[in-house]
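At this stage, I wrote out one protein's amino acid sequence and its backbone structure tokens, and that material follows here:
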Amino acid sequence: MSDRVLRGARLGGQSFEDERGIEFAPRQQVAYACPEGHEFEIPMAQEAEIPLTWECPRCSGEARLVNGAEPEAKKEKPVRTHWDMLRERRSLPELEDLLSERLDLLRTGQIGPPHLHRRSKSRAKKSA
């Protein structure tokens, strides 16, 4: 078994191909700076679309392109609550009418769990 092992080779460690005869795409160095003061360069292809931000390799912060335009601020939607969505569909007088209708139904025992219904005096006497 030991006579079949390639000496000096590591599994997945090295490629035995060389770079002769390979023509690389034209490249450019793109400079970034993060708020912590770290500056670094990334090699990119000439025709690549350059991102305005890049993750800093030292502090993992968001680095910005040196001499680049400011990234567009993301438009944040305001938080819509259940009440906001309800108010889009109904007016306050409509909501008050609905509330009074539902309370009347609950009081008469037509809706809701049985333990919340008010017993009439005649029903209380029959059960006793």
